[in-house]
Amino acid sequence: MGHHGLLYHLVMAVLLIYPSWKIFQRAGLNPALSLLIFLPALGWWIAGAILAYSKWPAIDRAAGGEGRA
Length: 69
Prior knowledge:
Elements: H1 3-26, H2 43-53, H3 57-62
């Protein structure tokens, strides 16, 4: 019965890898960072924190290199 939680985590991680890969890619970050989702418990938080608090190179390029405030 204890393996159901791990199985659920793996299924959800596999389903979310492609969308999160595209989000990291479009933000201009390394898309391989989306693989952090496979880390149990903390992976979701780490990937979200990277997206929330890092500078997005794609935004800087779109703004003409002016940067973000």
